[in-house]
TrEMBL record, chains A, E, F:
Superkingdom of origin: Bacteria
InterPro entries per the UniProt record, alphabetical: N-reg_PII, N-reg_PII-like_a/b, N-reg_PII/ATP_PRibTrfase_C
Pfam families registered for this protein in UniProt: P-II (PF00543)
GO MF entry, a single one: enzyme regulator activity
One Gene Ontology term from the biological process aspect of the record: regulation of nitrogen utilization
Protein name: Nitrogen regulatory protein P-II
From TrEMBL, chains B, C, D:
Transmembrane segments: 6-26, 38-59, 65-85, 97-114, 126-148, 169-187, 202-220, 232-256, 262-284, 291-315
Organism field: Sphingomonas changnyeongensis
Keyword Amino-acid biosynthesis carried by entry: no
Protein name: Sodium-dependent bicarbonate transport family permease
Alphabetically ordered keywords of this record: Membrane, Transmembrane, Transmembrane helix
Length: 101, 321, 321, 321, 101, 101
């Protein structure tokens, strides 16, 4: 088992394709998307709304090296406030380290 | 048509049932996937019905006039709304522009309900109005984004990849509505006959089920709605009345007949809550969805459904007489 | 009507297909969102159909009698069930009370299937029975909670915010059923005509699709069912027979006619698996859902669908003769 | 029937609309749960329609012949495909076997569209072909797994619990199709009358909605499709043509008549993308889903829908003359 | 990046509104809800069942300070057994610490 | 609060019943299933596809002791590559330790 970083980003659905590109540019090309149902933050409550997709959010999950994680977080940081993102990082152990960057 | 006539139609009653259930904090809920499926069905059915009518009656010069009027309204209506919201509601530039785009664009369900009520009232509108509905969805978005001067801020890292025009014109609802309209025109009466039980027979019944959900959604948004103030609520009622009257007057001036003019007014007075919010979330992420969805979905939509539509029809009948 | 007549109806056959598929461990599955959408459709359609009939034939004194009988049954039936389960099945107080509430309440799908079979059999029940269905959903919950003495334990931190009565009376299925019934009465024959193809034309076909899923769900629950014992299974068959016969007898005594009396028996004999479990999970979290859903959904529901309904109809015909 | 006739049918037009929307990178999407619900509906309706026809016209010796032909085709067609893919497309054993299984099996939606086009063309096929469709789904899987010599590798820890035959024959789509066919036969014309508005009236309209989604899915898979090469794409067009012609010829030789022979060709030429992928993912996890779904869903399915079906019908008319 | 606590609670859907209130009372007002499909525990298996909603569960996720997390956990502890809850805590790093309590 | 291991496995839906059995055999009998929407890895992109269920994936989550986690991971390791699994392990704290193996 080797240590890697687990980076999670909660993001509005319409912004997801752009996030995937940004991650790729930062060297994070493998990821998994998990659904979210709703929540509450500084800007009030939201619920998933498939009608227009405008208010739905998705959890982007990537396991990667510390270096790539740092590069990704750095590029994302200036966008966190303007785009209402939630960014989480933690440690995780994986088998087959090379598969995770 | 009086407001009471409208209020005793099942479509409107189901909307009220949903709204009451939400206000009473019932746990009644329509699964999101089902609501989305219903909205796809409605757009497909609306497109096919319009296309079938145009195939049946042929295109007319009035269709060209009405489409030009619709495009013009959608492009221009956001301007006065924007300046009004800046000046009187004291919204910042971005939020005012985002809201203005919603009011220039249109609501598919308001259109569908209006068409039904007109038919019930013995004043059916022309089939080509579906094409007008489709072309009115997007111009307002362009005006809104220009007002927000989205370009000035420079391309941020999460800006849409294909450019904003791409997102605007290829929004799913625009594509489905226009595509179904064209399929309806291509297939014609004969080709459509086997699928008529679905796109025509089920239309009004499924619209009821969808409006039940819209009632739940609108009322819950109103209750969550920290972004709304007395002032923005007032504007969300005032704007559609003025825009709707303008639309009716324009239609009458163009000689579209009372039913069709009323429907142009309904379109002008309606505000988008499907196509525009999705683009705004992308293009103006700083704008507050609580504000624009609150105004268009939680105030204007219920207002139009219950009072606005009968009012535009009433104006059309007076002006047309 | 013999059990064989019932067993060759498509609705029942689809239920059996679902159950067989699940027992054979097929991966056949209906998406949850679709099943939920279907159940909303069914409640809306049942409400509208009932309301339309009452609008058509007018309210009758018998309607008041039947509603009073339904409310009485729902309030009182949980009492003998509770004491039986305490004494004979050795359930603890909370579980016995939770199960008793389910058996006092009713199953919407059993009602719908029973109505269809009665119609097929040439013995249609009165339209107002939809109102009886609606009023029977909740009183049993109140009795059940009183039996569990939910109040004694003090308000825990996860107790429902609005109070239990709120959760009980504003349960989504109750609201939708009653609301649609009222809309049907308000709109009347004429107003409902445009939506009849949906609420009436599709009803039986979509009921088949829903029962396919119910078969899958009931059989899978039976297979998972660690909470069920031979004894509880036996009670889940015995209780509906006794309650159903009682309901039929009461209906006959009140002079409701054989079709309507049979349907009152079907209601009395059916057990809830939509409204009551949701409230119980909230009000009596300590009670075991495996037990109450296992009994009502995995045993009583299939029993009623295949053998119970023909049996109650048979009794109604004998008593009515 | 010319390809142009096919291409102006609403079902095909909706498929093209979906494909165009996906190629243009529109965000149009049908929720997965709705798509799955529609596919369950279509299988149920196809089964009932076929069963009703058999109940109406009775079983014939030709039905036996056609079923034997279908089973034979499904068992044997994977063999030449496998050797062709090994030799000419240089696929490894596992991938070649997985793809071969898909081409031996059948596509329910291609069948449904083909039946509609034949009916439109005045050349309806026999109702028992639904049974042929059902029996053709699984034999190819057995041949495919034998070709991959799945057994040799020893049982790995994630091998299916019930054994592969279980997964193969109790696949949800097989169970629902066969079950509905039997229910249709059991219930007969009379029993099915109340549910005909759903299984018959809605069939073509809902098929349109489903094909819109299939267009989106097929085109998106083609765009994602790193697994496809010019060579595999060519085979995904060549194989159905050869297999389809073979099916038509066999049907004609057996004296099934032009409509039924054309439909046997459509079945032979179609490739599975519902039942077989699910079993392959389980039985041959090493095989690449991008390859087999890419070939069957993104190339062969659109080809058959637009060009293949008219071509098989054309052959059937020539051979039958 | 600053350290915060990640608290996750798997809870029956009907109990969710009450949990949100309890969290708020403990100073945890921002959260995200994630769907769950099924599972198995001491009380047997469950699957999501939208029919009555009675047996569906939801994952409540909150990122908060250690103090608020402790207060929340303390209030929840007596309910874990009677209400079949699963409660998980772990460390996580966030940017913009003040946004997370 | 006591320390336990959080083991997550992203797996193809058709393989899930077999994974549950394998976990049970390794002493991991309690778990929760979370849905996933899509992702990208060494073998390209995938999206949830309920049509055949062939390309959908599910997240299997189990909280267990280090010993049981190790036994589980060991049995799973030879299958990771051939079956396209993603396996993650991390630390987590729980109340009521005995409930988690
Ligand atoms: N580094 C990673 N971070 C997040 N998800 C991953 C990662 N690697 C693989 N996955 C997920 O696991 C799936 C299968 O991975 P693979 O076998 O590499 O194609 C991918 O499609 C992703 O959903
Ligand atoms: N502390 C938190 N814990 C969990 N989720 C959060 C937290 N803060 C924000 N979120 C999620 O991120 C979304 C956007 O946050 P905000 O920009 O603060 O409105 C919220 O609606 C929540 O779903
Ligand atoms: N050790 C565990 N790992 C993962 N999920 C668990 C665990 N224990 C319980 N759960 C989840 O919590 C639910 C309720 O647990 P219980 O109260 O033990 O029946 C279970 O059905 C699982 O979904
Ligand atoms: Na407008
Ligand atoms: Na009862
Ligand atoms: Na084939």
């Amino acid at each position: 088992m080797v240590e890697r970083r687990r980076v999670e980003v909660l993001i509005d659905e319409p912004l997801l394709p752009a996030l995937v590109e940004l991650a790729q540019a930062a060297g994070v090309s493998r990821y998994t998307l998990l659904p979210a149902l709703g929540g509450a933050g500084a800007y009030g409550r939201w619920r998933d709304d498939q009608l227009s997709g405008a208010t739905g959010k998705v959890m982007f999950l990537a396991i990667t090296t510390r270096a790539a994680a740092d590069a990704f977080v750095e590029r994302l940081e200036p966008l966190l406030d303007s785009h209402n993102l939630m960014l989480l990082s933690s440690d995780v152990e994986v088998v087959r380290g090379p598969r995770f960057g | 048509m009086t407001a009471l006539d409208a209020l005793t139609q099942p479509v409107v009653l189901f909307f009220l049932l949903g709204a009451l259930a939400a206000f009473a904090r019932s746990d009644l809920a329509v699964p999101e996937a089902v609501a989305k499926g219903l909205s796809l069905y409605l757009m497909m059915a609306i497109g096919l019905r319009g296309g079938a009518e145009v195939a049946h009656f042929g295109a007319s010069p009035q269709m060209g006039l009405a489409m030009a009027a619709g495009i013009g309204l959608s492009f221009l209506l956001p301007l006065p709304v924007f300046f009004l919201l800046r000046a009187a509601a004291r919204l910042d530039r971005t939020n005012a522009a985002a809201v203005a785009a919603h009011y220039g664009s249109v609501s598919v369900v308001t259109f569908a309900t209006g068409s039904e009520l007109l038919r019930q009232h013995g004043l059916p509108a022309a089939g080509y109005m579906v094409a007008v509905l489709a072309v009115m969805e997007t111009p307002a978005i362009i005006t809104g984004l220009a007002l927000a001067r989205a370009g000035r801020r420079g391309r941020d890292e999460l800006a849409p990849r294909g450019g904003l025009l791409h997102e605007t014109f290829l929004n799913g609802s625009v594509v489905l509505l226009l595509g179904s309209f064209l399929i309806g025109m291509l297939a014609g009466d004969h080709g459509l006959a086997p699928i008529r039980p679905v796109y025509d027979g089920l239309f009004r019944g499924l619209l009821c089920l969808f409006l039940l959900d819209m009632g739940l959604i609108a009322a819950r948004r109103l209750m969550d709605g920290r972004a709304l103030t007395a002032r923005t609520v007032a504007f969300a009622i005032l704007i559609p009345i003025v825009q709707g009257a303008l639309g009716v007057a324009l239609g009458t001036a163009l000689g579209l007949g009372p039913g069709t003019s009323a429907l142009l007014g309904i379109l002008a007075g309606s505000a988008s809550y499907i196509a525009v919010p999705a683009v705004m979330r992308l293009a103006l992420p700083v704008a507050d969805p609580g504000l624009y969805l609150g105004m268009s979905l939680a105030v204007t939509f219920p207002f139009n459904l219950t009072l606005g539509i009968p009012c535009y029809i009433w104006i059309a009948e007076r002006l047309g007489a």
